[in-house]
Amino acid sequence: xxxxxxxxxxxxxxxxxxxxxxxxxxxxxxxxxxxxxxxxxxxxxxxxxxxxxxxxxxxxxxxxxxxxxxxxxxxxxxxxxxxxxxxxxxxxxxxxxxxxxxxxxxxxxxxxxxxxxxxxxxxxxxxxxxxxxxxxxxxxxxxxxxxxxxxxxxxxxxxxxxxxxxxxxxxxxxxxxxxxxxxxxxxxxxxxxxxxxxxxxxxxxxxxxxxxxxxxxxxxxxxxxxxxxxxxxxxxxxxxxxxxxxxxxxxxxxxxxxxxxxxxxxxxxxxxxxxxxxxxxxxxxxxxxxxxxxxxxxxxxxxxxxxxxxxxxxxxxxxxxxxxxxxxxxxxxxxxxxxxxxxxxxxxxxxxxxxxxxxxxxxxxxxxxxxxxxxxxxxxxxxxxxxxxxxxxxxxxxxxxxxxxxxxxxxxxxxxxxxxxxxxxxxxxxxxxxxxxxxxxxxxxxxxxxxxxxxxxxxxxxxxxxxxxxxxxxxxxxxxxxxxxxxxxxxxxxxxxxxxxxxxxxx
Length: 507
Description:
Elements: E1 6-10, H1 14-25, E2 29-33, H2 37-56, H3 62-70, E3 72-75, E4 86-89, H4 95-106, E5 114-117, H5 124-128, E6 137-141, E7 151-156, H6 162-174, E8 178-183, H7 190-193, H8 195-206, H9 212-221, H10 229-236, H11 238-251, H12 262-269, E9 305-308, H13 313-325, E10 329-330, E11 341-344, H14 351-358, E12 365-368, E13 380-384, H15 390-400, E14 407-410, H16 418-434, H17 440-451, H18 457-464, H19 466-480, H20 489-497
Parallel strand pairs: 1-2, 1-4, 2-3, 4-5, 5-6, 7-8, 9-10, 9-11, 11-12, 13-14
Antiparallel strand pairs: 6-7, 12-13
Helix pairs in contact: 2-3, 8-10, 8-16, 16-18, 16-19
């Protein structure tokens, strides 16, 4: 395997300059080209400022900063990339532009030079189809901002030779990043796995289950994610994320799991794209997200009898423990008394289905999400039926918030909020593993580094209980009739055999 010592970078925008920065910092000679000479000059000026700041902070010496900048050589013409061991393009996401560029580079770079695309959504196989030597074409997908996002997807097209991808993996490690090997499929690993968070969050909002901010709060404080889907889409901006949602959906031939929402289409058309526009799902009047105040919880009445349905064994046990800790007056027996608040704990069902199936009074009934447990969570979710009377809703809200933990009160939804979203995230990761787009461990590594999830989705499924995730998905599919919730065979088989979701086939 030939070591890459001289790297060409085509495209001097945010991605190109980021790649140039970490490559030069690692000691590689970098040749930077852009169709605009001014873009290259601006990139070198930006890099000079970055390295000066790092030197001022003691992260490197002034001599090292000067040497790193000297290793970034401006190239006015593509022909100046002759002799590069590898070239990474970071130009506009249009297939015809990338194919034309690679065809030109083939006449410039030697036959043993590697050609890599930083594409986030286009097929490596399709890009390489325009090349005389497609075996030396691979994907090398960095994430923005490049110096901070430490994961890089190294993608094998159908005709990519292993030597090219192996050399890129080695290059990525030398630049201080973590390579993850992936097969050429829409979205690769990270963007593919990320469909669960955004599309399911949008589906919940579209069904008017809860406001944007409450869905985000539940995912942060109950499910343990760093940010919720609407905070994330405001950060990435809808002019970026909505086209990706549509692209992946269409590339998978309208796979229901990836179905986009008209919510983002309408907001994109209206210019409400996110933080950079000053307004998205949230307002950013001074560049910072404007906080949305939550209404205070009603006063708790611990004398009110509370009956918890024994229908779901795990949910029943967790809810009983919580209400005891909150000082509630618990009512025992196989059926609720006439004056009791009725609590159900469904996994994947909505409150209406649970209450109806158990023959309970819907006016007094509420549902509590126990799926994540209560020991580590900083928020609880309470769900009503369409028939729940306000006095019973408020009574349940007051009790659940008696110890100061905030409570999100949501409309009826199969799988609440966290159950639906987490089960969807796990299920999509399972299907990525089933399709062998990447190894299970690499899927979790890529998602943890690329999306900042608290755990990789496969490990998350194991922690929560793969059988419980499967239960949620089966009930979601049964209640909604929507094939987007059909369980992956990877999940189903590992539950049947008692295997970890991270376990590959034995043979």
